[in-house]
Amino acid sequence: MTGTLVLAGTPIGDIADAPPRLAKELAAADVVAAEDTRRLRRLTQALGVTPKGRVVSYFEGNESARTPELVDELVGGARVLLVTDAGMPSVSDPGYRLVAAAVERDVRVTAVPGPSAVLTALALSGLPVDRFCFEGFLPRKAGERLSRLREVAAERRTLVYFEAPHRLDDTLAAMAEVFGADRRAAVCRELTKTYEEVRRGPLAELARWAAEGVRGEITVVVEGAPETGPEELDAEELVRRVRVREEAGERRKEAIAAVAVEAGLPKRVVFDAVVAAKRAGG
Fold first, then answer.
1. DSSP tag of 133
2. Are the CB atoms for 255 and 270 separated by under 8 Å?
3. CA separation for the pair 106, 281 (Å, rounded)
4. CA distance 279 to 142
5. DSSP letters of 16-80?
6. Residue among 4, 44, 13 nearest 27 (CA)
7. C-alpha to C-alpha distances, 48 to 12, 14, 282, nearest whole angstrom
8. Cα separation, 152 vs 149, whole angstroms
9. For 34, what's the count of Cα atoms within 13 Å in the CB-facing half-sphere?
10. Coil, strand or helix: which one is 160?
11. Which residue, 66, 68, 71, is CA-closest to 56?
């Protein structure tokens, strides 16, 4: 019989949040695959448990190479426990490749549910949580970041992002540019830790605050786009949106099509607005 792959959530801050089953699984697993073996050692010491099985590293740098090894262990009947530095494996952390490979070989996959920065930030944000999208980390390059944000500019569900503290001010400024300066958001910092902080406000205001410097693990929650109708977007605004997309590198035809979708208008209406603006400008 094949073994079992167990995805285990780990504390995102407070060690007391560790799932009760985590210690049991750490002690029982034949193989423990950890994103950082040093952090795993600190975790097991805090929980008072000693893994009986083999401990191996499993991180972005060796994920592709190590996945076949772990799948072989699973096919051979081993119980493999996967843990990351914080939160649930596969959620912006290593794990997806291993799960996909295990499923392909008909290996049982289960989980020890645990803390999640995504859900914790959502709950604390004060923004609608009935429908949301998790967007992970944005691209580091400014142009690519703007393009990614424009893809969800009309998304009405609440958006959740992870971000590095040294890029937070640029990211919030880009969000204010694309989503609007007054779009509500919440920056959740150091969740469940000693210096936990949730800063709420309009994107432009949060960008000014972040420019002063922010430390710690960051999760950003952004309000979804408001309900809009064609009558709310005049020709000038349609043209502005097309120009923003063109400046980001999109071809005019693609930009017009995208803006038409955002505005809920026929492409011809947006095209005519662009042509009229060009004529008016000489």
1. E
2. no
3. 63
4. 31
5. GGS-HHHHHHHHH-SEEEES-HHHHHHHHHHHT----SEEEE--TTTHHHHHHHHHHHHHTT-EE
6. 44
7. 18, 16, 75
8. 6
9. 20
10. strand
11. 66
Distance from chain centroid for Cα 230: 31
C-alpha angle 90-92-95 in degrees, rounded to nearest 5:
25
Q: How many CB atoms lie within 10 A of CB 268?
A: 10
Write out the H or E segment, with its range, that includes residue 187. strand 184-189
∠ CA 32-33-37, rounded to 5°: 95
In angstroms and rounded to an integer, the radius of gyration of the C-alpha atoms of the chain is 23
β-strand 31-34 against 79-83: which pairing, if any? Answer: parallel
pLDDT in tens, the chain (282 residues): 899 999 999 999 999 999 989 999 999 999 999 999 999 999 999 999 999 999 999 999 999 999 999 999 999 999 999 999 999 999 888 999 999 999 999 999 999 999 999 999 999 999 999 999 999 999 999 999 999 999 999 899 999 999 999 999 999 999 999 999 999 999 999 999 999 999 999 999 999 999 999 999 999 999 999 875 544 678 999 999 999 988 888 899 999 988 888 887 889 999 999 999 988 875
Evaluated on CA atoms 41, 43, 46, 47, the torsion sign reads negative
Of 273, 241, 269, 275, nearest in space to 255 by CA: 241
Distance CA 51, CA 23 (A): 9
The pTM (predicted TM-score) of the whole model is 0.78
Residue keyed to tokens 């505005």? 263
Beta-carbon contacts of residue 259 (< 8 Å; ≥ 6 apart)? 238, 241, 242, 245, 270
